[in-house]
Predict the structure of Homoserine O-acetyltransferase.
Amino acid sequence: MPIRVPKELPAIKVLEKEKIFVMDEDRAMHQDIRPLEILILNLMPKKDETEVQLLRLLSNTPLQINVEFLHMSSHETKNTSSEHLNRFYHQFKEIRNEFYDGLIITGAPIEQIPFEQVDYWNELQEIFEWSKSHVFSTFHICWGAQAGLYYHHKIDKYLLNQKLTGIFEHDVLNHTWSILKGFDDIFYAPHSRYTGIKRSDVDRIEELEILVESREAGIFLIGNKNNRAFYATGHLEYDRETLEQEFKRDQQKGLSPSLPKNYFPNDNLADQPKLRWHMAASLLFSNWLNYAVYQNTPYDLTELLEEKNRK
């Protein structure tokens, strides 16, 4: 799939080495089609790494996609340069009158902080509310999923006894959902979090359904029955080395982290972790783009606002 991004975005060089077709703005202007408009709200500290991970996953369909990035203006980013943000990212005030086929909201390493104490919570609530009338389908990841469930459905997170980290086996509970087309009964996915969601809290919401669950890691994927919102509590977008990097980062902070489960062969840090989740990651995101977004989104996105006004 041709992903259309700014020509100078550093992630392009990484993706091109992987033979992923990235289309710059100049070439895309010569294709007479309406591409999907996808917005990524990147809440992760190392934004360049997350850019590569998500753009890689969005590359697995024949659809042309315009990708834009959003960051929180009410939060000071310490791990990404202001030059990078100013050049490649929007602030919410700049795009609040725009419409998008899809929105991806990433995780953030702040699960232990109550939502209302997050410094950008007010701004994020604005974005959640705006998305109801300006975005067709939203994919929430990890803390982004917990925040979305809290805002839209009053489902709160709860603190785990210790950090959940590792690669876990997951069971597909309902194959009839289009976002799970082509999935085997069981697949693997990474988790990295201190908090969880209770099944009983999700089950009481009529419009939500738990689609994928793990015996060890709990709920993984929740879908809104109108295909307009999905909530993934894990990190299928993670690279092979991401959990290792997080483990070593926590060691350097003196946190005495537990070794990620089912990750290092024989729990030996000297052995390279096996990559067992990228096929599922590619399939999940391509299914979301194709079935939840492309086949259902209106050609004229302003109809989203008209739809909300009619309700």
In short: The mean pLDDT is 91. The first strand starts at residue 3 and ends at 5. Residues 278-294 form the longest helix (17 residues).
